[in-house]
Every structure is written in structure tokens, then in C-alpha cells.
TrEMBL record:
UniProtKB keywords: Membrane, Transmembrane, Transmembrane helix
Name of the protein described by the UniProt record: ABC-2 type transport system permease protein
Transmembrane segments: 21-42, 62-82, 115-137, 143-165, 177-198, 231-253
Keyword Membrane carried by entry: yes
Domain of life: Bacteria
InterPro entries in the record: ABC-2_transporter-like
Organism placement in taxonomy: Bacteria, Bacillati, Actinomycetota, Actinomycetes, Propionibacteriales
Organism field: Thermasporomyces composti
Length: 265
């Protein structure tokens, strides 16, 4: 019970931190709405005058995919690793290590708080999707249920990827360049913007070998009735990535903890 209360206190910190910078947070919601409008315009322009589906996808699915993909990415793919870098640089990470819950648990709790703080993005994304006529219902009740389960697994995959990225701060005090490269690779390879089924075969193979697609593309593919390898296989791959990433985080942290040197009183 005490441990749960401590974890919840970290979640609360994660919720409050983004909204301490209201202008930036509100601007990100505006950018999300603008992205959805622009992508819907672009997809409709690409499909203009075309009656046949492309790669089995019609214009309604393409626009709906963009609406849901951008919304899920905005809610799940938060980036609290910038604050971890600052705490490592300032030496405040030493205080984190003295807390009664482990550093990985602290960070996962804070990241969960960031995701909760980003939930207004869901309302903005879906609301904008309704305005541009880009929302489509799941292909079936089974797809809706599978989407809910897959989205929960995507949350786990996304947070473990972010945690693994944050641990690089123990090897380099400047993660700006790495963070930007990470953001670009994750956004593209996750299928948040372009579905994997539009990619050439060799690029699909690379994307499927990386964990990013399990954090966005898989739940979207389930939603639109195209789970890769079938629903059971798609969910199983997501669960497998959670186990692999959790093991990687534990292993990297077992190495990173010996690099911490806190000087001063």
C-alpha cells in the first residue's frame, strides 16, 4: 500500500509537469489538429479521381488511419527523457537514487503521468477527425475489442522504448541530437503517419524487425481489420516486445548505475 502510494506520487508529478508549461502543451494540441487537417487534405488529393484502392486501402481508410495514428502517437509517444538528461547533468539523479522505489519504476510512473496529461490530445484528435470527416468505425466488434487490447500493449511497448532511450543520458550528457533522431525514426517506423502496408517490402521488413511498429501500427492495423499475421499473432508479438524491452531496460540500467558519480554534499 505504501509502495503504491509512492508510485502514484510519481504519476502525479508526471501529470503536473507538462501542464506547468501550459502554452507549450496547448500549442502541441493545436499542432496535432493542424497535422490531422493537413494529412486528410493530402490523402484526399492523392486519391482524387481514383476509384480503385491502393494496397487494399481506400481513401476513407487512409484518412481514418492518419487521424487515429497521429492521435495515438500524440498520447503515447511522450518524451520525458529530456528531464532525465537534465537531472543527470545537474546531479539531481543522486536524489532519485535515494528514493524508496527503484529508478526504473520512478521513470515508468512519471511517463505514465505524462501519458495521462496527454489525454486531451485524444479529444482534440478525434474531434478534429470528426470535423474533417476522417473517422471510421472499426470493421467489427471483434476488431474493436482487439484494438482495445492491442492499444494497452502498445502503451507498454511505447513506455519501455522511451525508458530505454532515457537511459542513454548516463552515457552522454547531451541527448538533443540523439533525441531528434530517435523522434524521427520512431515516428516513421511506428507507422504513425504512413501505414506499413504502403511501404516497399524491404522497408516493411526493417520496420517489422523494430519494436516501434508494435506501439502504433499494430493497434491501427487491428482496428482496420488487417492485423499482421492475424489477431493472436499481432498481440503475441506486442507482448513479446514488452518482455524483450523490459529485459533490455533492466540490463542497460544494471550497467548505467555504475556510471553514476555524485560529488558534493
Amino acid at each position: 500500500m505504501i509502495t503504491l502510494r509512492r508510485v502514484l506520487s510519481q504519476v502525479r508529478i508526471g501529470v503536473l509537469t507538462p501542464w506547468a508549461y501550459r502554452t507549450s502543451t496547448l500549442l502541441s494540441l493545436l499542432v496535432l489538429a493542424l497535422q490531422i487537417v493537413l494529412y486528410s487534405v493530402v490523402w484526399r488529393a492523392i486519391y482524387a479521381g481514383r476509384q480503385d484502392p491502393v494496397a487494399g486501402t481506400d481513401v476513407h481508410t487512409a484518412v481514418g488511419y492518419a487521424v487515429l495514428g497521429l492521435t495515438i502517437a500524440a498520447a503515447l509517444h511522450t518524451a520525458p527523457f529530456w528531464s532525465i538528461q537534465a537531472r543527470v547533468r545537474d546531479g539531481l539523479i543522486g536524489i532519485d537514487l535515494t528514493r524508496p522505489i527503484g529508478l526504473l519504476t520512478q521513470n515508468l510512473a512519471v511517463q505514465t503521468g505524462h501519458v495521462l496529461a496527454a489525454l486531451p490530445a485524444v479529444a482534440v484528435g478525434l474531434g478534429t477527425g470528426l470535423l474533417v470527416g476522417g473517422l471510421t468505425a472499426p470493421t467489427s466488434a471483434g476488431a474493436a475489442l482487439g484494438f482495445a487490447v492491442s492499444l494497452l500493449l502498445a502503451f507498454g511497448v511505447s513506455q519501455l522504448i522511451t525508458l530505454l532511450m532515457s537511459l542513454t543520458s548516463f552515457w552522454t550528457l547531451e541527448v538533443g541530437g540523439i533525441g531528434m533522431a530517435f523522434y524521427v525514426v520512431r515516428t516513421f517506423m511506428s507507422g504513425a503517419i504512413v501505414p506499413l502496408w504502403f511501404m516497399p517490402g524491404w522497408l516493411q521488413a526493417i520496420a517489422k524487425a523494430l519494436p516501434f511498429q508494435a506501439a502504433t501500427y499494430t493497434p491501427l492495423a487491428v482496428y482496420f481489420g488487417r492485423p499482421p499475421g492475424g489477431l493472436a499473432t499481432a498481440l503475441g508479438v506486442q507482448a513479446l516486445w514488452i518482455l524483450v524491452l523490459a529485459g533490455l531496460c533492466a540490463w542497460v540500467w544494471s550497467r548505467a548505475r555504475y556510471r553514476v558519480v555524485v560529488q558534493g554534499g
